[in-house]
Amino acid sequence: MGQFEQSEQFEQFELIVRGGMVVLSNEVRPADIGIRNGKIAAVVDDLTSRSQAAQVYDASGLYIMPGMIDAHVHLNEPALGHWEGFETGSAALAAGGCTTYIDMPLNGVPPTVRLEALEKKLALADGVSAVDFALWGGLVPGNVERLAELAEAGVIGFKAFMSCPGGEGEDIFAEVDELTLYEGMKEIARLGKVLALHAESEPIVSKLAKEAVAAGKRGAMDFVNSRPVLAELEAVNRALFFAELTGCALHFVHISSSEAVELISSAKARGMNVTVETCPHYLTLTLEDVVRLGAVAKCAPPLRSSEEQERLWAAVRAGKIDIIASDHSPCPTSMKDGDMFEAWGGISGAQSSLELMLDEGHVRRGIPLPELSKWLSLNPAKRFGLYPRKGEIAIGMEADLAIIDMGESYTLASSDLLQRHKHSPYIGRSLGCRVKATMVRGNVVYEQKPDGVKLTARTGRWIRYDEGNGGKLYG
Ligand SMILES: NC(=O)N[C@H]1NC(=O)NC1=O
Ligand SMILES: [Zn+2]
Ligand SMILES: [Zn+2]
């Protein structure tokens, strides 16, 4: 596993992906990929001359990468499927070269904080998702005793908010109070799972937001200034303190500052079981974009300065960031009208993550493709129990592939987007590569051709945690 292997014994394949440049975990090389029973059965030079396949996909001139594993996606069913649901959200992900996503326990109603809610969500995803998926459970005040049933059912971990997530209604996903966070960590440690945290200090951000609104300061920069890096640092520090006391494994989602990455790096150096994620928007957009675009680029934590962004890229390059995920948090476009404090916070970026990271990371900054692939596929697979089933192109692993033209540039138009509501801060952006096809377990689920796009089989399956490797990222 994990190696390029010469294979002579497999002569019959369902599919051969022929003539592409294959992105392996340690090199990029020309090879044919033979697929049997939905798995990678051969990665060799010139397979077609000595084997048979029901189908051949001609990938000459194209790059074959492991499909992205997007660990941070909000598809909002049950109840808020009119914001985004499994059908449209997974179509957008497929079009972006993602082959497995991990759905967040909010913003659907009920949130995934007890078994019945998980069952409702699964019933809605069944037969609808274009690509494979796993599920996060949620930790909220009052549900610590329900975490075990969710773990038993197969969630890959739990998510909690340290600041208010927004949203309305009775069955809301509330932020954790300190005691819930501490007790929840104890229980999650006992269950052997990871706690994913939205780390912003509620006392800091709510006070600053109140002051800004009271002073009539409701613009883009006022919003950005109400959620400073300090709020992220304080929350990360507090969570690390509780994790040290409880032994709970942590994953910090959507970290926006290199200062927070440094805090997390020191915790790793002390031997703590902690990982960190950032998102394409923090690596490709800055506060100038939120000023220019308004609420369509509103997210929490907010976009930062270009200097902060350069420091974040330096942290990525230094291997200090483990995972890059979209935090696709869509809503109806009408919820992006109005002032910056009222509008929905969340960027609809699912379809663009891989292309943005290849364009900005590889084409512009020269980061090798195997490195990018580690942050986009291998590390999330390992951290969240999907490895060695998924995460890289290697013998025996599922044939989850993104096929990319690294020579095609295009300008993203709203008509390219397959998500339910066609807003995105990346519309009008020129991208130096394009996903041509996406395969899940050897099934072509998405194809982009000159005459348009084709979505095929909705063969996405739920991947339970217990099929994985226990979340070991290192070693
Ligand atoms: N509720 C929700 O999805 N919030 C997400 N949006 C965002 O920008 N950050 C988040 O945590
Ligand atoms: Zn969040
Ligand atoms: Zn999120």
- What small molecules does this complex bind? 1-[(4S)-2,5-dioxoimidazolidin-4-yl]urea, zinc ion
The tally of domains stands at 2
Known CATH architecture of the largest domain: Alpha-Beta Barrel
Query: Could you list the spans in which at least 5 consecutive residues all have pLDDT below 50?
Result: 1-7
User: Got a strand count?
Assistant: 20
Rounded to the nearest angstrom, the distance between the terminal CA atoms is 15 Å
* Largest sheet, strands/sense/barrel: 9 strands, mixed
Q: Helix count? A: 13
Specify the CATH class of the largest domain: Alpha Beta
CATH level 4 superfamily of the largest domain = Metal-dependent hydrolases
Write down the CATH topology of the largest domain.
Answer: TIM Barrel
Helix amount, in percent?
25-40%
How much beta, percentage-wise? Answer: 15-25%
Give the mean pLDDT.
Answer: 95
Assembly classification: single chain
Q: Helix/strand/pairing class, anyone?
A: alpha/beta
Radius of gyration: 21 Å
Shape: globular
Catalytic activity: (S)-allantoin + H2O = allantoate + H(+)
Binding site for Zn(2+) 1: 72, 74, 159, 327
GO molecular function: allantoinase activity
Subunit structure: Homotetramer.
Topology:
Layout: E1 12-23, E2 28-36, E3 39-44, E4 52-58, E5 63-66, E6 68-73, H1 86-95, E7 98-103, H2 115-125, E8 132-135, E9 137-138, H3 147-153, E10 158-161, H4 178-191, E11 194-198, H5 202-214, H6 220-225, H7 229-246, E12 249-252, H8 258-269, E13 274-278, H9 280-284, H10 287-293, H11 306-317, E14 323-324, H12 353-364, H13 369-383, E15 401-405, E16 410-411, E17 430-431, E18 434-440, E19 443-449, E20 452-455
Parallel strand pairs: 1-4, 1-5, 6-7, 7-8, 9-10, 10-11, 11-12, 12-13, 13-14
Antiparallel strand pairs: 1-2, 2-3, 5-15, 15-18, 16-17, 18-19, 19-20
The protein binds 1-[(4S)-2,5-dioxoimidazolidin-4-yl]urea and zinc ion (2 copies).
One zinc ion (ZN) binds at residues 72, 74, 104, 327, 329.
